[in-house]
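Working notes for the structural subgroup meeting. M.R. asked for a predicted model of this chain before we commit to crystallization trials. I am recording the input and output together here so anyone reviewing the notebook later can reproduce the run.

Input as submitted:
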Amino acid sequence: MELKQILKLIVDEERASRYLQRFRWYGKPSCLRCGSCSLLYLSDKRYECRSCSSRFSDFSGTYLAGTKLSSSEVLLGVKLFESGLSAREAAKQVEVNYKSMLRLFHTIRQAMVDYNHQANRDPLSGEVEMDEAYFSVASAREKGAEELRIRFLYSA
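Returned structure, recorded in token form:
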């Protein structure tokens, strides 16, 4: 999804919520416990099953269960994760707590790993550049300390 479309969705929390509901329920919500489609929509954005009286939300039973982020914050966080921003910078952009954004980023990474595992895919194959790092050869207080540049590579 393009950034322009995300920005249109996150302007209104209700639109962002409906967008995520389409992916969660594939149409009509159903009870997580008994599977019944006879539900009451409560004022706190949760559902109550008329058959077994269990209560659940759109994020219940998903990777996002227990998150304190709103639907629009989740959508924007996913887009910022996709663009490669750090969790700290994304938290500043979305104006949420750093730990909440870090948890969302970890959740996204875990979902990606689980998806690859379920599809029997190798998560990394071939040569993948991971990161660059600079290490000081001498003590930082010494004059003329040379930097050693190391490029980490993973090859399977």
